[in-house]
Hints:
mainly alpha; globular
Amino acid sequence: MSKGCTYRCLCGWPTSFHxxxxxxNMFFVLSGLLLTHSQLHDFxxxxxxxxxxxxxxxxxxLARIYxxxxxxxxxxxLAAIITQNQxxxxxxxxxxxxxxxxxxxxxxxxxxxxxxxxxxAVEMFFYLLFPLLLPLLLRIRRQRALLAxxxxxxxxxxxxxxxFAKHPAxxxxxxxxxxxxxxxxxxxxxxxxxxxxxxxxxxxPAGAVAAAWAVAAAYLSLTGPRFxxxxxxxxxxxxALVLTVMYLARPTDGPGxxxxxxxxxxxxxxxxxxxxxxxxxxxxICDVLWGRHVLGKYPPFGGLIVxxxxxxxxxxxxxxxxxxxxxxxxRRLRPxxxxxxxxx
Length: 344
């Protein structure tokens, strides 16, 4: 490889890393694995959820995500009104975002709140399907069949993005990136990863994870900057992510496991969702501030100020809003315990 080619690959890596949107991919895969782990005790055998179980599951998920989400939308809407910086169709966008339905309209899915709230709407779609998907996957007894489903999900996760990458002139980007069914294969792959680890006892060696990421990194460096489809990167990124979450989920007493289970990282995990929501709100506010050159005079420190402010806001939000609201909502579900799903 020539020096010029090597230089282009190295310089393209940060761009391809960004374009790979690995954080969103990881979020969807990890969400499927963690939900599977938390719900397996309610599904000792393939079973359809009863109505009350289904409602209880959804209320619990909404109690986790919706209070801070609604608060963030409220602050963003107030900031947009005060600064007279409302996007077109503002009230329609506000209603769609509040109802978590905006991701179903590709033309509007990324038009507000920094273009990032679509992922919460997609996650809500996953929650609606999860109690129905898990019994279906549990009915797959043969391991080869389960792996075949995982392979089919892998193809489904990258094929639309690869098609868009080959036909960039077609207006397909939001259909392959922010449309809920298009991202379902990543979530379902995480569910199968959870079944392989927690139900079938799979153990993924660290070497396999390292090799998968080495191949994915080489691919992103060489091909990533030329692919605008984002989810096209799932062709190699998704296998690496699935192996990673399976490796991290295995029980072990190693230093890595102790680090992940440490109190500081656990706390950061608790406030991470609030951090995501409030940084979307800060995008709107900081656009105004930078436009007025309030923080833009000090670009090296402006980013640190914003990150610090979001972190502090996330901590306050977690203790003042998220935890109390979740406790208040869940208190209404007690003392009734979610019933075991009905047998098929």
